[in-house]
Each structure stands twice: as structure tokens, then as C-alpha cells.
């Protein structure tokens, strides 16, 4: 007898429908699984048989054949435990089998019949709504993320017995009623820009970066506050929209990193160690998984001690920074993950950590600086809009009891600047100045005569590349938006050029 149950598998950050076909026939007792299951999926037959036995259901002594269709795509994970077990229970007449067609099922079975959480519930719920199922049956621990999908009956259950009661149309089993507004309520920020002592020009530069979505490189001695400022950057960025929350939550869902949050409501901040591999940063594996660039989607990717990262790893950043997505190709599949992030990197003035800027007690020579900076390629540096000098903090600033401007006050200015950009690009698929292409730069970043002369001088004297020239114009456009002005003046160009003064050391 053949039974068909709807399940779901992941392909990138999306889910696709998997029809779990369970056929039970006369023959030598066996449990065969086909449809390109990986080792984890094949092990589900032992979990399913043991769980059903411990729940009081006899295991049939017949030949069991399970097919996971489409059979030409490799399947992984433990989410097929529940649909496979329901096929066996349908054979035992535990519930009317015609009720199976109303739901999409996903979940892992514990040996005592409990439903355990699995990754990718949010994409599966989106799929269930798209395919017009009456509801989705999931483990109780995955209830929050599934609640983000409006208009879908979400049945978050504790064990296999509750699933059987649902299929028997029991009045005791109701769809979940979770307050989405409560789920999306932003948590209180535990860090603030007012904690930073001094560094006024650095905070101004980070405000410009947040307003335009620009990448930043901070160069300064240890203890100057580079990491402290980077960790506070998400607190001045605009609040996430519902669409951004869904996209970020899907990535964390398929990665199994949501935990008990249910949704990513604050802009992500990722800070991988400098020993990370290119697969860890970009994503990869036999069945590709998202890397840190995707986990930082709509947030900040912070690379501390930039020259300590392997050059191959750094060079792999170039394409994702330009395209806002990363494509990972393997023999069995090719997947694309979104990765629209702000890159914030930091480094010391030279490899000698006691080295500092000219005029200090310890001073790096030009040859030391050039050798250290040569670890960062010119094409990667060109993609970083703002190069920021972070000086040592003086004692009088450290000991001062005065607090700086709060993150909330800075964020209000950033939001106003972003709204100006959204209005400007409302007919184009652009959300901030950093995403402008060549056509948009020519149209919206025209400096006045004095600004043109200043740019001409900067290109000649500082050796800016064509890409660096465009980056200066984009940053100047953001500075103009922060002031609420329309025309790019020489003052705006001058400030933007100052943020590229370290180019000379890297060339």
C-alpha cells in the first residue's frame, strides 16, 4: 500500500517540496530508502522504528520502500523523520490517510516520539503557504519563526501522539496563535556610541558610513577603540524593515543559528577570526551552507586585524562586495546566497603593534608600512569607501566624565539621510548610495566647479583609481544627504577625499 506525505528540503535559503512516498508490500522484511538520501537521512529509519515502538505502535514485518521525490536532488538533514513515520502509521490505520494531503510535515523524531527542532522551518512555512496547504506541522520549539508567515495554519506540536490527534481531527489540537508584533519587537541595545571617549572625527565618519552603507577601514594603534566603535555601528544603522527581517531570518534558519529568538530583528554583526577559511567566510561544503558574509546580510561584517587574514580569503570577498550575493558551485548543485553587508575592517599602523602614527614615541618606517600593507590588494582596497585614521585616545578624554552623543540621536540623522536616498532611488532597485552604479553616479553625484577642481587635484596627486574616484563621489553624496542639501559642494568633496588619504600607503 502506497502513502504520499508532503515534506520539504532546502536549496540555498529557499525550500522545495519533497514528496515522501512510503510503500509497504509483501516480501523479505527490509527498510529501503531511495531518492539520494545522505547518511543523516538514511539513519532516520532507525530513529523512526525505535520511536514508533516506544510509542506503542507495532513495526510491520514487511518490505518498506521510501522514495524522496524528486529523486535527482540530494537530501540531507533529519526533517524527514516525521513524514516517514506518518507513512508507517497510515499503514497501521492510526488516522484516516486522506487527511495527510492537507498539511506539510517537517521535524526530527526523538527515540521517545518527541518532535525535535530542525533548521529551515521559515523557508518551509513560506513554501507551505505558496503551495496552498491548510497548515504546516512542525516541532514546538520552531513555533516562533513559522509565525512570521501570515495566513498559514501553524501546528507546533510536542510529539507524534499530538500529530496523530491532529490527523484524527481532535478538537484539542489548535493552530498556534503567536503575537508577531511581540516577536518583532526590537531588543534593547546593550551598547551605545556615548560609551566611546573622544574620537569625534571617527564617529562622524562612521555616521557617514551608516547613512550611505559604505565600507570602512580603520587604521590605528591597539586600544584606540576600533573594535569598540565597530561593535556599536549597528546601533546607529536604520531599523530593519519586515522584508529585511524575513531575509535575514531565513539565512539564520537554514544555518540552524536562530536558537530561541524566532526572528533576527537587529542588524547582524559578524566578526570571524582571522584564521577562518574561505569556505567559512564565503560559504561552502559538500552541500553548501551560508558563510559569514551571508550571516551578515543587512548588517555588519567586521574583520579585525585585516592583514592577518589569508590573502586567498580576502580576495574571495571582492565579488560578494560588488554583487550583494555569492554563488557557490559544487558538482551536485549551485546555490546563491544573499550577502548585502557593510564591511568594517581594522588594522594596526604596521606589523609592530607598538608602531603608531608620525610624531608618536614609536614610529613605523615607510618600508615597514609598505611591507605590512602589501598584504591587502589594491582591488580590495578600492572597494572600501572610507579609510579612517584612528589615533590614540588622550588621557584627558579617557578620564573625562562627559558622555558623547547617544546612538539614538545619531540614528535619527542616519534615518533621515536614508529616507532621502530611498526617495531618490524609488524607481530603481537601489536602497543606499553605496549601491549606486555608474549611471547613478553620473546623474546624482555632480559636484560644483570648485569640487571638480578639488577632485582633479586629488586624482593627480593621490593617484586615485577610477573606482576610488567613484567611491569619493558616493561618499560626498552621503555627506550631502546628511546635511539635507542637494548640490555637492567643494566642502562635501573635501571631506570625502579626506577619507581616502591612506591610499598612498597601499599603492
Describe the structure.
This protein is an alpha/beta fold and 507 residues long. It has two domains: 2-181, Ribosomal Protein S5, domain 2, CATH 3.30.230; 193-506, P-loop containing nucleotide triphosphate hydrolases (Rossmann fold), CATH 3.40.50.300. It has 23 helices and 18 strands.
Show the helix and strand layout.
Layout: E1 2-11, E2 14-25, E3 30-34, H1 39-42, H2 44-54, E4 63-69, H3 81-91, E5 103-105, E6 108-109, E7 115-116, H4 121-130, E8 135-139, H5 143-146, E9 153-157, H6 160-167, H7 180-183, H8 200-212, E10 216-219, H9 226-232, H10 242-255, E11 269-270, H11 278-282, E12 283-284, E13 289-290, H12 292-295, E14 300-303, H13 311-315, H14 318-323, E15 325-329, E16 334-338, E17 342-347, H15 366-373, H16 378-382, E18 386-389, H17 395-398, H18 407-424, H19 438-444, H20 449-462, H21 466-483, H22 490-498, H23 503-506
Parallel strand pairs: 3-4, 5-8, 8-9, 10-17, 10-18, 11-14, 14-17
Antiparallel strand pairs: 1-2, 2-4, 6-7, 12-13, 15-16
Helix pairs in contact: 2-3, 8-18, 8-21, 18-21, 20-22, 21-22
The class by helix and strand makeup works out as alpha/beta
Number of domains in the coordinates? Answer: 2
Average pLDDT metric: 88
Name given to the CATH homologous superfamily of the largest domain: P-loop containing nucleotide triphosphate hydrolases
Number of helices: 23
Strand content: 15-25%
Q: What is the share of helical residues?
A: 25-40%
CATH level 1 name of the largest domain: Alpha Beta
Radius of gyration: 28 Å
Q: Uncertain runs with pLDDT below 50, 5 residues or more? A: none
CATH architecture of the largest domain: 3-Layer(aba) Sandwich
Task: Give the termini distance in whole angstroms.
Answer: 72 Å
> Sheet with the most strands?
5 strands, parallel
Amino acid at each position: 500500500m502506497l502513502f504520499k506525505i508532503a515534506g520539504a528540503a532546502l536549496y540555498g535559503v529557499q525550500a522545495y517540496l519533497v514528496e515522501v512516498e512510503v510503500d509497504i508490500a509483501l516480501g523479505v522484511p527490509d527498510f529501503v530508502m531511495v531518492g539520494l538520501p545522505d547518511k543523516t537521512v538514511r539513519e532516520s529509519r532507525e530513529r523512526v522504528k525505535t520511536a514508533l515502538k516506544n510509542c506503542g505502535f507495532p513495526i510491520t514485518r514487511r518490505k518498506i520502500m521510501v522514495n524522496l521525490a524528486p529523486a535527482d536532488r540530494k537530501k540531507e538533514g533529519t526533517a524527514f523523520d516525521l513524514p516517514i513515520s506518518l507513512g508507517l502509521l497510515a499503514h497501521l490505520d492510526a488516522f484516516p490517510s486522506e487527511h495527510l494531503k492537507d498539511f506539510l510535515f517537517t521535524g526530527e523524531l526523538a527515540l521517545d516520539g518527541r518532535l525535535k527542532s530542525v533548521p529551515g522551518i521559515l523557508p518551509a512555512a513560506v513554501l507551505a503557504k505558496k503551495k496552498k496547504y491548510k497548515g504546516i506541522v512542525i516541532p514546538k520549539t520552531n513555533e516562533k519563526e513559522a509565525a512570521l508567515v501570515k495566513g498559514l495554519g501553524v501546528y507546533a506540536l510536542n510529539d507524534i501522539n499530538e500529530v496523530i490527534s491532529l490527523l484524527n481531527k481532535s478538537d484539542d489540537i489548535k493552530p498556534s496563535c503567536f503575537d508577531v508584533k511581540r516577536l518583532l519587537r526590537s531588543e534593547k541595545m546593550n551598547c551605545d556610541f556615548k560609551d566611546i571617549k573622544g574620537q569625534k572625527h571617527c564617529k562622524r565618519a562612521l555616521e557617514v558610513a551608516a547613512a550611505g552603507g559604505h565600507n570602512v577601514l580603520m587604521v590605528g594603534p591597539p586600544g584606540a577603540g576600533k573594535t569598540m566603535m565597530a561593535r556599536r555601528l549597528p546601533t546607529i544603522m536604520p531599523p530593519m524593515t519586515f522584508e529585511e527581517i524575513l531575509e535575514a531570518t531565513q539565512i539564520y534558519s537554514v544555518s540552524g543559528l536562530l536558537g530561541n529568538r524566532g526572528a533576527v530583528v537587529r542588524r547582524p554583526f559578524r566578526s570571524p577570526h582571522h584564521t577562518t577559511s574561505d569556505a567559512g567566510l564565503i560559504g561552502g561544503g559538500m552541500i553548501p551552507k551560508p558563510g559569514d558574509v551571508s550571516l551578515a546580510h543587512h548588517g555588519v561584517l567586521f574583520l579585525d586585524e585585516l592583514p592577518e587574514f589569508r590573502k586567498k580569503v580576502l580576495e574571495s570577498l571582492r565579488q560578494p562586495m560588488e554583487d550583494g550575493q555569492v554563488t557557490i558551485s559544487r558538482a551536485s548543485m549551485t546555490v546563491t546566497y544573499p550577502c548585502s553587508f557593510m564591511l568594517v575592517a581594522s588594522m594596526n599602523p604596521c606589523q609592530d603593534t607598538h608602531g603608531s602614527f608620525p610624531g608618536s614615541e614609536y614610529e613605523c618606517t615607510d618600508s615597514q608600512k609598505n611591507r605590512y600593507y602589501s598584504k591587502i590588494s589594491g582591488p580590495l582596497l578600492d572597494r572600501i569607501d572610507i579609510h579612517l585614521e584612528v589615533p590614540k585616545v588622550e588621557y584627558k578624554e579617557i578620564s573625562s566624565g562627559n558622555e558623547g552623543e547617544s546612538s539614538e540621536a545619531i540614528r535619527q540623522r542616519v534615518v533621515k539621510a536614508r529616507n532621502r536616498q530611498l526617495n531618490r532611488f524609488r524607481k530603481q532597485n537601489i536602497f543606499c548610495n553605496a549601491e549606486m552604479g555608474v549611471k547613478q553616479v553620473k546623474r546624482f553625484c555632480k559636484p560644483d566647479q570648485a569640487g571638480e577642481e578639488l577632485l582633479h587635484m586629488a586624482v593627480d596627486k593621490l593617484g586615485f583609481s577610477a573606482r576610488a574616484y567613484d567611491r569619493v563621489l558616493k561618499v560626498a553624496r552621503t555627506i550631502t544627504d546628511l546635511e539635507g542639501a542637494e548640490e555637492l559642494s567643494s566642502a562635501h568633496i573635501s571631506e570625502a577625499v579626506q577619507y581616502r588619504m591612506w591610499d598612498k600607503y597601499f599603492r
